[in-house]
């Protein structure tokens, strides 16, 4: 099983994009991103039924995570995009909420989707 992220593209600074992740019904889904030459970093996570959600400080107030459990889908709405948001974005599943920011606990990584913020 791989959780496939989609919806990336090229957008100008200040623009918006919505990423999607087919979550295969997993309870907790996280979004990560990896820019060239940098480590993969946690962006946001959400629990089934949207009972809990959390964000990295770098995206708080600009990104919004949501999910449609009936469609087994998780979304990342990205607004006010900045050039430093440029990265490959991935979604993956983690078994417990206490591990949501622990990269090594996530499984079922897909290939990711490229987001490029540039004028």
What does this structure look like?
By secondary structure, this protein is mainly beta. 0% of the residues lie in helices and 44% in strands. It has no helices and 10 strands. It has strands at residues 5-6, 9-11, 17-22, 28-34, 41-47, 53-55, 63-68, 73-78, 87-93, 113-117. The strands form 2 sheets. It has a 6-stranded mixed sheet with strand order 2-10-9-4-5-6, with no helix packed on it. The protein starts with a strand and ends with a strand.
Short description:
This protein has 119 residues and is an all-beta fold. The chain has strands at 5-6, 9-11, 17-22, 28-34, 41-47, 53-55, 63-68, 73-78, 87-93, 113-117.
Features:
119 residues, mainly beta, 6-stranded mixed beta sheet, 10 strands, 0% helix, globular
* Average residue pLDDT: 94
User: Main β-sheet, in a few words?
Assistant: 6 strands, mixed
How large, in whole angstroms, is the Cα Rg? 13 Å
Specify the oligomeric state: single chain
- Residue share in helix: under 10%
| Helix-strand pattern | EEEEEEEEEE
Number of discrete helical segments: 0
Taken from the alpha-carbon principal axes, the silhouette is globular
Low-confidence stretches: none
How far apart are the first and last residues' alpha carbons, in Å?
Answer: 36 Å
How are the secondary structure elements laid out?
Blueprint: E1 5-6, E2 9-11, E3 17-22, E4 28-34, E5 41-47, E6 53-55, E7 63-68, E8 73-78, E9 87-93, E10 113-117
Parallel strand pairs: 2-10
Antiparallel strand pairs: 1-3, 3-8, 4-5, 4-9, 5-6, 7-8, 9-10
